[in-house]
Predict the structure of WecB/TagA/CpsF family glycosyltransferase.
Amino acid sequence: MKKFNKVDILGVQVADVSFEDTIDYIVDAVKNKKKTSIFTPNINLLIAAHKDQQYKDVLNTSGLLVPDGKPLVWTSKWLKQPLTEKVSGSSLFFKLCEVSAQKNMRVFLLGAAPGVGDIAKQKLEKQYPGLIISGTYSPPFGFENNPNELDKIVKLLQESRSDVLVVGLGAPKQERFISKYLKSYNIPVSLGLGSSIDYAAGVQKMAPEWIKKTGFGWLYRLLDQPARLGKRYLSEGPLYFMLVMKQIAETKKSKEVRMN
């Protein structure tokens, strides 16, 4: 598996990868049956990791962490370790479906509300002729504390003969699940991709690509879901900026000490 340079952002090791690098990494892992996990840290995940060392360890022990958000790219430039580009998790999901159709890779969808995965399956298989969605499942609330339910999920995954698992349970639940059970099922690549299944089914609106490229995808989501995201964005944004400024100051001070 190809190794990538990493940039430390608030203690989380974000890979310097392009969108195409990420797709190539997935295809290579499937081809060579190399088990790996891919997560897409954004401000929300970085703040959660800052508050929870165990969750930070879950992220840092994954196969690949791609920068899902322009703020991470901007931060890397402030740290003078510029990341190549933002790798949007939702855009990655749709490109993955396109490539999976071309390369006969079977994709399992785990997450979203009951019935949403089936709608996503129908739409995706129509949009990408040849794509095989090998299964869908919506775990009930509290499944992570139910051993019988967890055994059921692992069995479903094991029997699906999938090449790629897309988990849309939301952070940090999806990353914790993958980290804990990756070795329990025989699927080479597992990705935590948040609301991607909802986007595919059409139950949530996805920001247009031109808005994503400007770095204001977060504003589009906020205007679409103010009740759910307003409080989170207002609290996490300033905290993230403060923590980054602190890291920059500490990095600068450390360099000055080494030079003296």
